[in-house]
Amino acid sequence: MTKTIKVIAAIALLTLPLAACKEELRPERAPRQPATTDVKAQAPKAQSTENKSNKNQPDPAAAAPVDFEIGTFITPRNFPKGLFDQKMMSEYYSRTASLGRYTGSQMNWFDSENKDLNNLWHKFIKDARSRGLKFIVEMNLLTRDASGVGTPPSVKGSSFTDKRVRKAYQKWALELAAQKPDVLLLAVELNNLLIHGNPKEFNAFKAFAPKLYETVKMAYPEITISISFQLDQLYLRNEVSVLEDFANALDLYSFSTYPTAFGIRTVDAIPGGADYFTRIRKHLPANARTAIAESGWASRGGSSAAEQAKFYRRMPQLFSGLKPEFVVVAYLHDLPTSKNSSKDELLFSTMGLFDADGSQKPAVKAIREYKRGR
């Protein structure tokens, strides 16, 4: 394998925040009953009934003000080749800036010693800043299958119960913070450890997180520090109470949510409507800052481009109770698919606001019509 192909492969993993979630959704990995059944079982019945009765009513989102900023992960058209095409990257930054103020991506700890990869990410941060965009760095501590801690080759040990692992992870956090991102996630979808049956490691990081936060915050007080959790799975597994234990380890709670990946194919079918996203606040400190660090709605694989646009039109209303500071769309452009792509592959590959070839979807118009509330 050539050096360039290796870098592309690594970038593909870095830029796909859905990877662990995708593994979890495979039938053989499902922790409980099918996602559709479990998610709907969590819905407040009264609100769900109201949604059905309003199906034919005018869309209320038209008047809802938007109090959050939009962002996208680095996904130019013709991904991943587009990452190395100056014109396509310039187009990516311009399109993202036309929709919001944030860009960024996930960085895997197990790949953190790849110098070519690190140099490329430093360039991405520099280029984003030159275009007036804020940058989010997500630190992924998980293995490729999200079942444990993915340490790089030079680190001895594989658990946060090991002082050597904690020291090495803190060093990496400080190195990334030195790049001065606007937001730094110390962990991505941390509850994946619980999903994959590793509460020991989840608890070990939970014990370490306050010190890690304090160390990074003391060195770089201007950076907003966060940890993200997979919101849909918190509901599925009834594990929302774990959020309360991280109040002293972050400035802002981040969540990922992918309704279509969990069996929801229409916006009206979101369990409880806006309450699906709002009720998580019951488990957060009063006035806690929040964000949606990853989100998306598929335009194929069982849903449609029209339904995707409806999701984004409704987003101001759906997220009004959660009050996120920003919402990051997983992909700006769809990932490449083929005529042989399965329905599950389409669900994860068609969450972009533009097709893989750069064609605009109706969702773009929906976002551009947002009425800013601030």
Summed up:
This protein is of the alpha/beta class. Helices cover 38% and strands 14% of the residues.
Structure write-up:
The chain has 14 helices and ten strands. It is α/β, with parallel strands linked by helices and 374 residues long. The protein has one domain: TIM Barrel. It has an eight-stranded parallel barrel, surrounded by four helices. It has a two-stranded parallel ribbon with strand order 1-10. Strand 8, helix 12 and strand 9 form a beta-alpha-beta unit. Helix 7 crosses helix 9 (199-219) and helix 12 packs parallel to helix 14 (362-368). The longest helix is centred in the middle third of the chain and has 21 residues, at 199-219. The N and C termini lie far apart (50 Å).
Q: Under the CATH scheme, which architecture would be assigned?
A: Alpha-Beta Barrel
Report Rg. 19 Å
Overall domain count: 1
**Considering DSSP H and I runs of 4 or more, what fraction of the residues is helical?**
25-40%
Largest sheet: 8 strands, parallel, barrel
Oligomer: single chain
Q: Which fold does the CATH topology refer to?
A: TIM Barrel
**Unreliable segments (pLDDT under 50, ≥5 consecutive)?**
1-56
Beta-strand residue percentage = 5-15%
- Please give the order of strands in the largest beta sheet: 2-3-4-5-6-7-8-9
Number of helices: 14
Ends apart, CA distance between termini: 50 Å
What is the CATH C-level name?
Alpha Beta
Let me know the CATH homologous superfamily: Glycosidases
Write down how many β-strands occur, each being a DSSP E stretch of 2 or more residues: 10
Q: Compute the average pLDDT.
A: 86
Helix and strand succession? HHHHEEHEHEHEHHEHEHEHEHHE
What is the general shape? globular
Helices and strands: which structural class? alpha/beta
